[in-house]
Write a structure and sequence with these properties.
Structural class: alpha/beta
Strand order of the largest sheet: 1-3-2-4-5
GO molecular function, one term: protein-disulfide reductase activity
Domain Thioredoxin: 1-105
CATH superfamily: Glutaredoxin
Largest sheet: 5 strands, mixed
Helix content: 40-55%
Pfam families: Thioredoxin
Number of domains: 1
Number of helices: 5
Strand content: 15-25%
Keywords: Disulfide bond, Electron transport, Redox-active center, Transport
Radius of gyration: 16 Å
Shape: globular
GO cellular component, one term: cytosol
Distance between the termini: 44 Å
Number of strands: 5
Amino acid sequence: MATITLTQENFEETVTGDGITLIDFWAEWCGPCKMFGPIFEAASEQFPDVKFAKVDTEAEQGIAGFFQIQSIPTVFVFRDGVPLGGKPGAMSAAGLTEFIQMVREIDMDEVRKDIAEAEAAAANSPDA
C-alpha cells in the first residue's frame, strides 16, 4: 500500500474508522526526514493492514500546528479513530516495526474507558 498525502481536505476521512493509521510529519528540507521517508514507505508495503499517511509540515501548517508538532520527523498514531500520540525522531526499520507492534497490543477497550472517565470527570468539574 502506498502512503497517503494528508491535507485539510482528506484528513478526517483518513484517520477515522477502524484500524491503525500512522502519520509521518516531515518537511523537504529535513535531513532526518529524508532518511526516514524510505523506511516509512517500505513499512507501508510490509504492513498492508495499516494506513500510512504523510503530512508535509510546510504545506499543511494547520495540521502540524493542531498536533503541536515541534520536531520532525514525528510519527503520530491513530487507532480506531482515536489519537494515541506521537513519537518524534527518525526510526530504524526495526524501530518502526516495534512501534507498530506496540500499537497493535494496546487494549482499545481500556483506552475508550479511560477517555470516557476523563470526559465524565471534566463534565463534573466546577470549571465545566
